[in-house]
Amino acid sequence: MSNETDITSAASRKAGIWYVFVTYVVWGLLPLYWHLLKDVPSGQILAHRIFWSFIFVAILLFFYKRWGQLKEAAASRTNRLSILACSLLISANWFIYIWAVNNNHVIETSMGYYINPLFSVALGLIVLKERLSRVQIFSLVLAAIGVAIMVIQFGKMPWIALSLAVTFGFYGLAKKMLKVDAMVGLALETIFVMPVALFYLASLETSGTGAFGQSSLGAMLLMIGSGVATALPLLWFAEGAKRVPLSTMGFIQYVSPTITLTLGVFIFKEAFTATHAVSFGFIWCGLLLYSLSYTKFMHGLQAKSPKKPGQYRELTK
Q1: Domain of 146?
Q2: What span, in angstroms and rounded, lies between the C-alpha atoms of 105 and 94?
Q3: Mean pLDDT split into 10-residue runs, the chain, 317 residues
Q4: Is 56 a member of any domain?
Q5: Exposure string for 226-258, b = 16+ CB within 10 A, e = fewer
Q6: How far is the CA of 32 from the CAs of 72, 214, 223, 226, 281, in angstroms?
Q7: Domains identified in the chain, total number
Q8: Would 171 be classed as within a structural domain?
C-alpha cells in the first residue's frame, strides 16, 4: 500500500510540475499573442479579454456543473469584497501589460514579473506579519538595489515594471483571502467587470468605432481566443499549485519573465543596455538567493549558524 501511495504521489507531483511549467511558458509567450493585436486599442483588447474569459469559464462551469458553488461563494460579503478587489487589480494588471507589449516595453514587463515574487514577500512581511530569515531579507535588498540603479541611471521610475509587480502582488494577497475553487474564483472575478466590458464594446460597435466589427476574421478569432489564452493558464496554474512544493514553484516561476525578456531582446529588438544588465543582475541574484532559501542546502546552513531563540523563523509556507 505504501509503495502504491508513493507512486501515486510521485505521479501527481510530476503532473503538477508539467501544469506549472506549461503555464509559465504560455505566460512568457503571451507578448507574441498581444502583438498580433497591436492595431487594436489596448482598452478594447482588455474588454475582449474580460468578456471572452467569462464566456469560456461560464461554459466550463456549466460542463462541470459548478454553478451552485458560484452562488455559495458570492453569498459571503467578505468573498464579494475580495472578488471585487481581485477584479479591479487583475484588470489593471492586464491593461498595463497589454499596453506595454504593444508600445515596445516588453523588457520592462519582464522586469515587473521578476520583481513580483519579491514584492509579494514584502507584502507578506508588512501586511500579514510574516517573518523572514536574514537571507530572505537580503534578497529583497538586492532586488531593491536593482530597481534603484535603473531609476538613478535613467532618471525616472520604471513605472511599468513596478505597476505590474504591485497590481499582481496585491492581486495575490486578495486571492489569499478568497477561499474558493480556482474556476469559480475566476468566474466571479470576470462577472464583476464583465458588464462594464460588454457595455464598452457594445457602445464602440454601435458607434462604428469598435475594432471587432472592422477587423479581419483572423483578428476577430484572436480577440475571441483571448478568453481561452487568459483562463486556461490560470486553471492549469491552480492545478499545479495543489501538487507541487513551493520551493519547486519558486524556481519554475522565473521561466515566464525569462522568456519575455528573450522575446523583448531578440524578437522585438528592444535595447538591452549595460544599465539593464546590472539592474537585472541584482534582481536575478535576489531571486536566486530567495529561491535557495527554501532548499535543504540553505536550511542546513541556517541550522548550523548560531542565533538567539526566536530571532527569526522561516517564512510560513
Answers
A1: 13-304
A2: 14
A3: 60 84 93 94 95 94 87 84 90 95 94 85 78 83 88 85 92 80 85 94 94 92 95 85 68 85 94 91 87 64 50 36
A4: yes
A5: bbebbbbbbbbbbbbeebbeeebbbebbbbbbb
A6: 38, 22, 14, 12, 25
A7: 1
A8: yes
